C-alpha cells in the first residue's frame, strides 16, 4: 500500500512539473490603426505574430507586409488593460523594409508574465511613413 502511494505521489509530482513547464502560446493579427485622420493615408499593411512563453522565456516570431514605407522599429507595449495604449517595454528586431520578419527573445519577470497573461501586451511596428505606429496587435491566448 505504501509503495503504491509513493509511486502515485511521484507520478503526480512529474505530471505537475510537466504541466507547469508547458509552453503558453499568444497570437496576434497585425493590422493598421490610424491614430488620427491625417495618418490614415500613411498606414497600411498586415501581418501576424506568435509569442511562446516557456517558463520565463518569451520567444516572438512574426511576419508583416504591405507597409507604405520601410519599418523602422518594433516594440512590445504594455497597456493598463486590453485595448488601451501604453508605453513600449521591450524592443523587437524588425526588417527595415515594407515587408519582412519581426522577432525577439526575452527573459521575463513574474510581473511581466502576469501582464502578458492578462492581455495587457501588444506589438506595434513603426514605419518611415507612420512613425507613431503603423501595425498593431494585442497578444492574446
Please explain how this structure is put together.
This protein has 141 residues and is α+β, with helices and mostly antiparallel strands. Helix content is 19%, strand content 43%. The protein has a single domain (23-138), classed as Sandwich (Immunoglobulin-like), CATH 2.60.40. Strands 1-2-3-6-5-4-7-8 form an eight-stranded antiparallel barrel. A hairpin with a 2-residue loop joins strand 2 and strand 3. The protein starts with a helix and ends with a strand.
Overall domain count: 1
What order do the helices and strands follow? HEEEEEEHEE
CATH class: Mainly Beta
**CATH evolutionary superfamily:** Superoxide dismutase, copper/zinc binding domain
Form type: globular
Distance between the termini: 42 Å
Number of strands: 8
The CATH architecture can be named as: Sandwich
Order of the strands making up the biggest sheet: 1-2-3-6-5-4-7-8
Helix content percent band? 10-25%
Defining traits:
19% helix; alpha+beta; Immunoglobulin-like; 2 helices; globular; 8-stranded antiparallel barrel
Q: TL;DR?
A:
The protein is an alpha+beta fold.
Write the topology of this structure.
Blueprint: H1 2-20, E1 24-32, E2 46-54, E3 57-65, E4 71-78, E5 88-94, E6 100-107, H2 110-117, E7 121-127, E8 135-138
Antiparallel strand pairs: 1-2, 1-8, 2-3, 3-6, 4-5, 4-7, 5-6, 7-8
Amino acid at each position: 500500500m505504501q509503495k503504491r502511494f509513493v509511486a502515485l505521489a511521484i507520478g503526480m509530482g512529474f505530471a505537475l512539473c510537466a504541466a507547469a513547464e508547458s509552453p503558453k502560446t499568444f497570437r496576434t493579427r497585425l493590422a493598421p490603426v490610424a491614430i488620427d485622420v491625417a495618418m490614415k493615408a500613411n498606414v497600411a499593411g498586415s501581418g501576424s505574430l506568435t509569442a511562446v512563453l516557456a517558463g520565463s522565456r518569451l520567444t516572438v516570431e512574426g511576419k508583416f507586409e504591405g507597409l507604405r514605407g520601410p519599418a523602422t522599429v518594433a516594440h512590445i507595449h504594455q497597456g493598463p488593460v486590453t485595448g488601451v495604449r501604453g508605453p513600449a517595454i521591450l524592443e523587437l528586431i524588425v526588417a527595415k523594409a515594407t515587408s519582412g520578419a519581426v522577432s525577439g527573445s526575452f527573459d521575463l519577470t513574474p510581473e511581466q508574465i502576469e501582464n502578458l497573461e492578462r492581455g495587457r501586451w501588444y506589438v506595434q511596428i513603426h514605419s518611415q511613413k507612420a512613425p507613431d505606429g503603423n501595425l498593431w496587435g494585442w497578444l492574446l491566448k
